[in-house]
Amino acid sequence: MAGFLDNFRWPECECVDWGEKRNTIASVIAGVLFFTGWWILIDAAVVHSDSKELNHAFHTCGVFSTVAFFMINAVSNAQVRGDSYSDGCLGRTGARIWLFIGFMMMFGSLIASMWILFGAYVSQGIPVYPGLAIFFQNALIFFSTLIYKFGRTEELWG
């Protein structure tokens, strides 16, 4: 059973050359996801402006997610592999540490948004839309980070 998809290939689309537009498509999709995440939270903040409905401290998850987005995408894949980055602060090791800290911030924000959703909204029996907005904001920023970081690499697209 192992390796039963080894010889499977997706059908090639002859009408569009995805190789040349790979970076553009990944950037647009990531930008739309990032924008949608912030738009959802801004909508929740406007609709539920009272601090009893949406605590203002819950916005820090989105801020940390955004900072992590920029941290992760500030390091290129060539810097992590060591192809183009040998000088500077710790060289390749410094780039990997920076990337690791960015991913830990991103995962921490995503986990904190789930904790806020279930701990502050679902278990309390109050309207859950603000908690869902916080969770979806962080989830969309997380997916936009992954698409922007790994959707632009040549190894994944062939």
UniProtKB/TrEMBL annotation:
Belongs to the UPF0220 family. This is TM50B protein. Signal peptide: none annotated. Its main location: membrane. It comes from the Eukaryota. Keywords: Membrane, Transmembrane, Transmembrane helix. It holds the Pfam family UPF0220. The chain crosses the membrane at residues 25-45, 57-76, 97-122, 128-148. It is a multi-pass membrane protein. It is found in: Membrane. The lineage of its organism: Eukaryota, Metazoa, Chordata, Craniata, Vertebrata. GO terms for cellular component: membrane. InterPro entries: UPF0220 (IPR007919).
